Amino acid sequence: MRQRETDKGGQMAREITIVDVADEAGVSYATVSRVINNKAHVSPEKRERVLRAMAQLGYVVNMQARSLAGGESRVVGLLVDYLSSSYMDEIIRGIDEALDAENYDLMLYTTHRRKTKESAYVTKLTRGLADGLLLILPRNAAAYLDTLRQRQFPHVIVDYLNNKQNVPSVSATNFRGAYDAMSFLLSLGHQRIGFITGTMELGSARDRLDGYHAALKDHGIPADPHLISEGNFMQPQGYQCAQELLSLSERPTAIFASNDMMAFGVMEAARERGLRLPEDLSIVGFDDIPQASYVHPALTTIRQPLEEMGRSAAHLLLKYIAHPNAEIERIELPTHLIIRESCQALSFTS
Fold first, then answer.
1. What PANTHER family does this protein map onto (predicted)?
2. Could you read off the pLDDT of 69-84 as tens digits, one per residue?
3. DSSP label of 30
């Protein structure tokens, strides 16, 4: 085995290079490069020798150098604003499953809702660390989308809808889902329906509010601005918004929350006030995260196919990595009303 140079303390004096791996395996530099980049035209026997030499020498692939040399990092960057939700978990599960099947690794960055961090991470990931970029619910996309497009850097946004920009994206039918939720509550006789929005800078939140308004209009019911409370997709804010709505002199008989987490906050606020669910208050959420079927009463909600959204986004990104000039696609996956126990028809005593 080739001896590695060490300093007086027995530590490595220099980094193992691809040339060392080639010498150790008895193959050419080009063969080692093909193995590292997972290319074809390498015999199984030579591939095994290269991998064994890499392990023996402790060679670590420099992803950035490999990318700058014209190779692939086989890494996809993923940018999210937070991790503490089943919504995010389900999407990431779909992404990870799709990438793993194609031998890609995932590099995750969390922005903690800081717009400056989002831009900084995008810059970092696109400078050789990753072959492509996935962004879930970006909050500062306008700051870098033009740059990504001009550089033809493969990217896909998940749960982003902006009709003014032709951006590769995967989302669900947010407007239709909200319209269906409202139509269901209206069919049960509810007319004073409170609505808790999501973060209004996000396209999905705006679409759900539009669906709420459209359903009221189509049923001939005037919108009451006092019945709309601005949330942020988090459970504590759902609780606070529900407290406001339930404090109205004429409280709503039903509340539609823009996601399941806020609907759980509504349940908590209602119980604190001694309201029975669903006898005194019907509740509908949006997402159908796993917990929705386990709470009591089980939550009626709009299911968006979160795992499938993640898988579709990953597949779309891999297409752009292989074909940078491919036509831009904007995929909208269907939503479905899931009826459980948190709603009932309005009674005359409500």
1. HTH-TYPE TRANSCRIPTIONAL REGULATOR GALS, LACI-RELATED TRANSCRIPTIONAL REPRESSOR
2. 455 668 898 988 877 7
3. H
For the domain bounded by 174-305, which CATH number is listed? 3.40.50.2300
Q: Is 214 helix (H, G, I), strand (E, B) or coil?
A: helix
Domain at 75-171+306-332, CATH class? alpha beta
Residue in this structure with the two tokens 């997402």, named with its chain if needed = 287
153 close to 126: Cβ distance less than 8 angstroms: yes
Q: 108 burial class (0-12, 13-18, 19+ CB within 10 angstroms)?
A: middle
Asked if CATH classification 2.40.100.10 holds for the domain at 18-61, the reply, yes or no, is no
Residue 348's pLDDT is 56
Q: Is cis: bond before 324, omega within 30 of 0?
A: no
Check residue 163 and give its pLDDT.
56
DSSP of 38-56:
T-SS--HHHHHHHHHHHHH
Count of Cβ atoms closer than 10 Å to residue 124 Cβ: 14
In order of 104, 113, 126, 314, the CA distances from 144 in angstroms are 24, 16, 11, 20
Read off the pLDDT band of 124 (50, 70, 90): confident
pLDDT 10s digits, 158-197: 987 665 668 899 999 999 999 999 999 999 999 999 999 9
Which sequence spans correspond to the domains of the chain?
A: 18-61, 75-171+306-332, 174-305
